[in-house]
Amino acid sequence: MIDFKGVSKTYPNGTVALDDVNLSIDKGEFVFVLGHSGAGKSTLLKLMMREEKPTSGSIIVGSYDLNKIKNREIPYLRRNIGMVFQDFRLIPTMTAYENVAFAMRVTNIPLRDIRKRVPYILHLVGLAHKARVYPTELSGGEQQRVALARALVHNPPIIIADEPTGNIDPDLSFEIMELLTEINRLGTTVVVVTHEQDMVRQFNRRTVKLEKGSVVFDTGKVGVR
Description:
Helix content is about 35%, strand content about 25%. By secondary structure, the chain is an alpha/beta fold. It has a domain of about 150 residues: P-loop containing nucleotide triphosphate hydrolases (Rossmann fold), CATH 3.40.50.300. The strands form two sheets. Strands 6-7-8-3-9-10 form a six-stranded mixed sheet, with helices on both faces. Strand 4 and strand 5 form a beta hairpin. The radius of gyration is 17 Å and the shape is globular.
């Protein structure tokens, strides 16, 4: 599903963000990418989304070879990846329903399909009763659930969560991780990028640790799917 072979990334200012990274994530896996600030986590994500190009090495995401992908194909690549951000990135003037629906509208999904899909996804994340509520009226955990619903609405084969529990309380963090675990049980490949080692230990899934741009350990496939 995701395959990095000998990937390095050096920025124009000389910063080496990734150094000879080899990483393969299979379809249906749940993987934590662990590392402190500056370890290379953000660059890894940018390369997966084709926001950056590697200096060397090859990257495959799904059916796309990111070294050969054409610019017009990049939006289609990104539709196969549901991104969940630490800062939620919800539109404050839109309700929970409208925030999720907007992700479908911008890709020209028919209105009848939106009306079917959005309530189902909000129900999946436990927010059907908050569909008409605005982000400022939701708790941090609820806002993150809306963000997760938005990421799921296209039914992508891959979910990437970038520090998804960074701005919410510990109890709510557990709920978000349980939700991601359940999504993974349904067959979605889940990659969670985090620096929270306690959470990683608690959920006992495959863990890849980055330090100074290199993979320093990879626990392999552990835990129960």
